[in-house]
Amino acid sequence: MAKPIIKAFFDEPTNTISYLVADPATKEAAVIDPVLDYDHNAGAVDTRSVKAILREAEAEGFRIRWVLETHAHADHLSGAPYIKAKTGALIGIGEHIKDVQRIFRPVFNAIDLATDGSDFDHLFKDGEHFQVGDLDVEVLHTPGHTPADVSYKIADAVFVGDTIFMPDYGTARADFPGGDAQRLYRSIRRLLALAPETRLFMCHDYKAPGRDEYAWETTVAEQKSKNVHVKEGVAESDFVRMRAKRDATLAAPRLLLPSIQVNIRAGKFPPKQSNSVRYLQIPVKMKDDAEFGL
After folding, report:
1. Does residue 292 register a pLDDT over 90?
2. 105 contacts 114 by C-beta, under 8 angstroms
3. Could you identify which of 52, 121, 133, 209 might form a hypothetical disulfide with 28, taking C-beta atoms 3.0 to 4.6 angstroms apart as the criterion?
């Protein structure tokens, strides 16, 4: 089986790696987890990151057929709609995005949002196969970080989203609504049951202490022998305890609220209001309105 051409694009403000993956025979391609640049302080968006991917695809003669999301990200906004508008690519995500939409629709009172996944062009089932040119892509449901996480296996490469990080950094948090550390452990074990030489491509990297460079490619064998959270010998119960203790210390991602609102809509912003402006909402948590004179 031919190996895909893989080009990585690192966005340092969100520590996100997006991928342009192409079939060397047909030049058909997919983009995985594209980033829309968003200035939270100004409420302004920019497309420089997705434009960089599109320029590379054009230079290589690639035709982008798919934009693939590993999940509804909580740390960056998706650039999928921009790529779709420029290329006609279809936007795909795991079918359990419907669960995530149902969780967050009431949080943001998003009455415009359907909870059937219809904002996306295709909802992938676990074990589903589809083609990017002559490349076969297998979808693996790998929940735990969120209910909807999937990994995409293309030949000897697997794009794992936020399921697992580089061996010296460990694993993803599991404390978001719908997250589950036990399911995360089992998803990781599913990935680590693949052939030892299988290449794993991360969605994020934060440079673990002692490492000077960002990194995003590893192997099943390296994860099994070195991952600080789930290397061989770590029991499920120990992992769940560790994850719960660690997650309790983690702050919410800086772009959590805008990211979720946009990404559960397949990268689209909420509808314009009567003044033709789109708004992102911030739910305010108060124990007692009366205390604040409200």
Report:
1. no
2. no
3. 133
How far apart (Å, rounded) are the C-alpha atoms in residues 141 and 127? 8
Above 90 in pLDDT, residue 33? yes
Given a contact cutoff of 8 angstroms between Cβ atoms, the answer to whether 255 and 75 are in contact is yes
**Which residues on neighbouring strands pair with residue 70, listed in sequence order?**
none
Q: Is the CATH code 3.40.50.2000 the one for domain 5-292?
A: no
Structure tokens, 218: 């590893």
CA 158 to chain centre: 13
Residue 152: enclosing H or E segment and its boundaries?
strand 150-154
Residue 289 pLDDT exceeds 80: no
Distance CA 90, CA 130 (A): 12
- Residue-range domain boundaries for the chain: 5-292
Could you identify the residue written with the tokens 């995500």? 93
pLDDT at 58 > cutoff 90: yes
Question: pLDDT tens digits, residue range 110-143?
Answer: 999 999 999 999 999 999 999 999 999 999 999 9
Best CA proximity match to 156, nearest among 219, 92, 65: 219
Q: What is the rounded average pLDDT of the residues 241-246?
A: 98
Distance CA 29, CA 27 (A): 6
Other C-beta atoms closer than 10 Å to the C-beta of 71 total 27
